[in-house]
Amino acid sequence: MKYSMVFSALLLGLGLSACDKPTVVTPTVITVPVPGPAGPSGPSGAPGLTGDTGASGASGATGGPGATGETGKTGGETIIVVPPAAER
């Protein structure tokens, strides 16, 4: 009788281990942030750095020819204009 109780307990343990056990799957909880009312604005930040100066633009078109001078007069006196002497 001693061995029959041990033998029956052993068979019971083997029988229960052979049974299908339900697998519990816990649902995944997804949290979605919900926007709330806006709070007061914070203080302004420090001013940013000054940027580099830009490149100079392209030069403009070349100007047209200048006005033509008055034609010289023939005959008469010749006037020579002497520039003032440079100071030394």
Mind sketching the topology for me?
Layout: H1 2-18
Helicity level: 10-25%
- Helices, by number, come to 1
Q: Helix/strand-derived class?
A: mainly alpha
- Low-pLDDT stretches are none
Q: Give the overall shape, derived from the CA principal axes.
A: rod-shaped
Rg calculated over all Cα atoms? 54 Å
Secondary-structure element pattern, one letter each: H
Number of strands: 0
Describe the model.
- The protein is mainly alpha-helical and 88 residues long.
- The chain contains one helix and no strands.
- The protein is rod-shaped, with a radius of gyration of 54 Å.
- The termini are far apart.
- The mean pLDDT is 80.
Key terms:
88 residues, mainly alpha
Task: Compose a concise summary of this entry.
This protein is mainly alpha-helical. The protein has one helix spanning 2-18.
